[in-house]
Amino acid sequence: MLPIAMILAASLSALPNDPYYSEQWNLQSRGPFKSADGKGTVRGGDHAHVQEAWQLLLDNKKGARVSDLGKSVRMAIIDDGFDIKHEDLKNKVAAYKNFGGPVIEGNLFSQTPKDVHGTMVTGIAAAQTDNGVGIAGACPGCELVLARISSENFAPGRGEDYFQEVFDWVMKQDVDIINCSWGPDDDASREFFARLIEKLASEGRGGKGIILVAAVGNDGKDIQSDVLASQPSVIAVGGSNSLGQRLTFSRHGEALDLLAPIAGGEGKIGAYIDRIWTTDNFLAPPCLTEGVKPTTGCSDQAGLTPTSPMAGGDGWMGKYSYRFSHTSAAAPLVSGVVGLILTANPSLTAREVESILHESADKIEPGAARYDSEGFSPTHGYGRVNAARAVELALVK
Predict the structure, then answer these.
(1) Which of 197-201, 265-269, 359-363 is least confident?
(2) Which of 35, 82, 249, 286 fits a disulfide with 40 by CB distance 3.0 to 4.6 angstroms?
């Protein structure tokens, strides 16, 4: 095996041919740089070293191609809605179920309310990679199990029953990872989620434990108020930027595990800082003819902001978006990295995966973080996730 320093400096032997991959700075970056369309700026060169992790796995023959990496891993995403017909997701979906209200015919998202969050989370974690369209997912081959939830459909007083039903179904799908880029409803108690997480840890993956990754939230408060993300066995993920700095809106506290690269929101109108590319809900408008460039006013009917001419994927105007941000985007990146860790070594327990993530993280901003003798900081966790170092550790376990 090459020394990690050499791996980190190396280029992937065969770069994915996804059109927006070169701007996915959260996976790999030689920043700072400006986006090809001139509307965005990546200010620094910090990133999660996912491309180098892919190379390590390919060098160790864990896949013939980048797109193979993670095919033995099944990832569940529990969120508000999913475009299961999306060109970058449809071939990855192994199972899905709607636990929310009505969805549009033949798909798994609603237009009223317009739920795009789940689709955007899913793309970061596991969009199909090296398929000539869109983006690359952190775990290119991971199979997807999608559970649509909606707080608007909770019956009064049955929040715990609702979540139990969702998680029981997900567990029955033999998943290895669960991503939750949301916080639970107030009806659910800390004790309920403690029992739920214990079941995942003791019964999932044949007793090795399902790894649950959760976003910490964006109000700058202590994570302890989130009865899911603050559970000891949950990988709680906050956000950092391309300069290798913690974003101050990211929640903090003793339950924080890691930071991952994300956008912090928009700058002035038309100028996006550290924008994150991902998949977006898509409904082709009647004015669109396949293979013909759309005219002004021919817009996607379902995306995050469908107000401009749609070209089938040109940033919040079609099948892809660069406007996803905050810790909801951090958690799925780490879930994808967990998929790569399990690709390297499927025998690892959930506790061992957590330990690897802690040990391999980069200690960004040491002065501000004040990491203790165990390498932990209540504001930065164990540091910013480093996929390459995590995979290297998994390979030798």
Answers:
(1) 265-269
(2) 35
- What is the rounded CA–CA span in Å between residue 283 and residue 310? 11
Residues 6+ apart with CB under 8 A from 285: 298, 299, 300, 301, 310
pTM of whole model > 0.70?
Answer: yes
- How far is Cα of residue 195 from the mean position of the Cα atoms in its chain? 25
Q: Residue 62's Cα: distance from chain center in Å?
A: 22
Q: In this predicted model, what pLDDT tens digit does every residue of 165-178 receive, in sequence order?
A: 999 999 999 999 99
Q: Are 329 and 278 in contact (CB under 8 A)?
A: yes
The amino acid at residue 364 is I
Cα separation, 294 vs 309, whole angstroms: 7
Q: For 148, phi and psi rounded to 5 degrees?
A: -90, 125
CA 64 to chain CA mean position, Å: 24
The span from the CA of 138 to the CA of 122, in Å, is 10
Q: In 172-188, which positions are buried (b, 16+ CB within 10 angstroms) versus exposed (e)?
A: ebbbbbbbbbbbbeebb
What per-residue confidence (pLDDT) applies to 302? 83
Written as six digits, the tokens of 202 are 């003791």
Spatial distance between the Cα atoms of 333 and 337, rounded to a whole number of angstroms: 6
Distance CA 383, CA 397 (A): 21
Give the Cα separation of 236 and 212 in Å (integer): 9
367, exposed or middle or buried, with CB in 10 Å at 0-12, 13-18, 19+? exposed
**Would you state the structure tokens that stand for residue 154, as one six-digit string?**
């909770």
pLDDT, tens digit, 9 for 90 and up, residues 191-223:
999 999 999 999 999 999 999 999 999 999 999
Give me the half-sphere count of Cα atoms (radius 13 Å) on the Cβ side of residue 309.
6
Phi, psi (rounded to 5 degrees) for 74: -115, 120
Judge residue 284's burial from the number of C-beta atoms within 10 Å of its C-beta, 0-12 exposed, 13-18 middle, 19 or more buried.
Answer: middle
DSSP state of 154: P
Instruction: Output DSSP code: residue 381.
Output: B
Q: Which amino acid is at 211?
A: I
pLDDT given for residue 311 in this prediction:
40
